[in-house]
Amino acid sequence: MRHPRIKTGITMATALVVSALAINQAHAESFPARTITIVVPFPAGGTPDILARIMGEKASAQLKQTIVVENKAGAGGSIGIQATARSKNDGYTLVMCAYGCAVAPSLYKPAPYNIETQFAPVVMVGTVPSVLVTNPKNVPAKTVQEFVSYARDNPGKINAASSGIGGSAHIGIEMIKREADIDIAHIPYKGAGQVAGDLLGGQIDMYFDNLPASLASIQNGRLNAIAVASSQRSAAIPDVPTFAESGYPDMLITPWFGLLAPAGTPEQNISKLNAAFNAAFKDPEVQKKFTDLGVNIAGGSSQALAEFIKSETAKIATLIEENNITAN
Prior knowledge:
Elements: H1 4-30, E1 36-40, H2 47-63, E2 67-71, H3 78-85, E3 93-98, H4 99-107, E4 119-127, E5 130-134, H5 144-153, E6 159-162, H6 168-180, E7 185-188, H7 192-201, E8 206-210, H8 211-219, E9 224-228, E10 256-262, H9 267-281, H10 284-292, E11 296-297, H11 302-323
Helix pairs in contact: 2-9, 4-11
């Protein structure tokens, strides 16, 4: 016969295990219990910042918790991305990753982070057209053919800005130099905000911009939109042709945005976040704002984002190697 004290000890131990499991389950079920932060690793006012604020407002209503946007700019986005990777993996800190997230691992030696192993995908936000814009006072060209002709007649004299080494604008510059066999000068900046001011002011001549950021200046005539580097024209600027229509089918650049969490974030928390942001993307107000900005909403599963990142990273690694693109 079992001793009564032994039986009592087993009963108490069992109760403690059950209690601990119940507490852990309650914590999982109560997520989120406090404010969620979306780190935008770029300056305020750029496309990632705008999108994070639009969707964050609607997703917060779904989650019944506040979502704040925190800008941590620097080093082409690496500062904010690395800070997020070091954050607690509980779902309360996310990062708005962009095109450059897939570039940095191949461009820099050593790589500043591993996008596939240090992060857990949450949801794909969307894609935007990359548009070649010029200051009409500096570059007397309205079509791709006119731009290429002008660049060939003035080798090295066109100043092409990028918002940083390895971003979509930098890749666009290298691609058009190769595809059109032209010589243009690359001027790297430390953020899109500085580029916009200098482009409008005439200090620089051209820029491969994310359409949402330059749309107003295109519409009011302060910038010329030469072509979009996407497979189809944008509904926001339907009169602007694609590079493919203009004779350069390989000029394809797709700036994208996706939400990531630190690796090891509980799957149930990822699922709740994914559901909340997908619900936000279905909101008519969000859809209108994204459409007006020229953004193609994506959404979908976290696994779909994981597969996209894997494919995009491999594609860009090949592009960097073939074009001998360096961080210098």
